[in-house]
Amino acid sequence: MRAVVRRLCLFIGALFGMSLIIFAALRILPGDVASVMAGVNASPQRVAALREQLGLNRPAIEQYGAWLAGVLHGDFGSSILTGRSISAQIVLRSQVTFPLILMSLAIALLIGLPLGCAGALATRPRMRQFFRVLAIVGGSVPALWAGLLLILLFGKGVGLLGVLPSQGFPLDAWAHPLTALASLLLPALTVGIIVAASIMRYTRSALMEVVDSDRIEFAMACGMARRQAVLRTGLRLIAPQLVSVVGLTLAEMITGVMVVENLFALQGLGSMLITDVGNRDLLTVQSELFLLSAFFLFIGFVVDMVHQIIDPRLRIQGWEQGR
């Protein structure tokens, strides 16, 4: 329990430190925030009014305190360009981005894990070479090119088969789950296939390291076939490594999702961030970057907790340190 509390405190501390970095970065950069947001041709009166409206004329510590207090209450403020609540926009866009990430990860695991195991179990040199080349080629495919190829194959109206939507997301979001899932399937396949290549490569390499170990031989001596020993004992041995890889992959997928959301015209967090950067709505960008940073840190926290659950040695070590 103490280990969990300690890691939770580290997570909160890291989140606080990240908020400081994001807040300072947007103010240390050259140029005045109000001048950038007002535009090149804005009058000095317009810049001064905008600076007062945003509170930029107050000391930096007061600005940070006001922003952090709003974040703790779930209020990220309002967009200076649209006047809409940033929190409401984030909640709306999250209904696209996070389901897309989870679907992409599920597809990646369904493809990558079996192929990685098959690559480790392959005994013929040609089969091993085939799985090695497959992992390299799959990981080298750009997300933009893969998405365009899938649209040409499966996209309605333009694709060869024309069975899946290739643009947009339902306005009523998840009121009709099947329609929403169909809209996300092609983008999820685009990201999932590329990520599957990385998971396949890591799974294959990790299993190859333990396939000739004493534990696999002991499992075979207990009556297991080689295939059973590798799939049961081997996967259990490499589980902590796979959890770390999946956690890092999940955090990194947000960058791939940004490209895919724009390609498939999905109104998610990635497209929102790109649009706000282009529109120079820097205070909205500040809140979006903080949310993405919190997501990355949360994934790391979850991975650490899962390690504690699946690896008894870490639980014992944490218990000894907490005494």
From TrEMBL:
Gene3D superfamilies named in the record: MetI-like
A Pfam match: BPD_transp_1_N
Membrane recorded as keyword: yes
Membrane-traversing stretches: 100-121, 133-154, 174-199, 242-269, 289-306
PROSITE patterns: ABC_TM1 (PS50928)
Family classification: Belongs to the binding-protein-dependent transport system permease family.
Annotated protein name in UniProt: ABC transporter permease
Source organism (scientific name): Bifidobacterium crudilactis
